Predict the structure.
Amino acid sequence: MAIDQEKLAELMTLSRLHIGEESSAEFKQDLTNILGLLEELKLTDTKGVEPLTNPHDASQFLRTDSVTEDNQRESLIKNAPESESGLYLVPQ
């Protein structure tokens, strides 16, 4: 399916895009190529093929949640310019 200038103008209006005249020919060719690939996909025989939603049938295994670091609150609060009762003080 080839894209003509009229169809390209309609697509640009609907998508609210603007391309210059110098890019118009290249853009039309790109769209024509994409539509050609889609036409090839339509010809593919998919009878008897189950829809694929996930290539891995097994569910994902999650690791147990465990603490890997000690509480570093005091060492981190030392870096703050000002703090009070373990909280950062910031200018208002």
In short: DSSP finds three helices and two strands in the chain. The first helix runs from residue 5 to 15. The mean pLDDT is 87. The first strand starts at residue 83 and ends at 84.
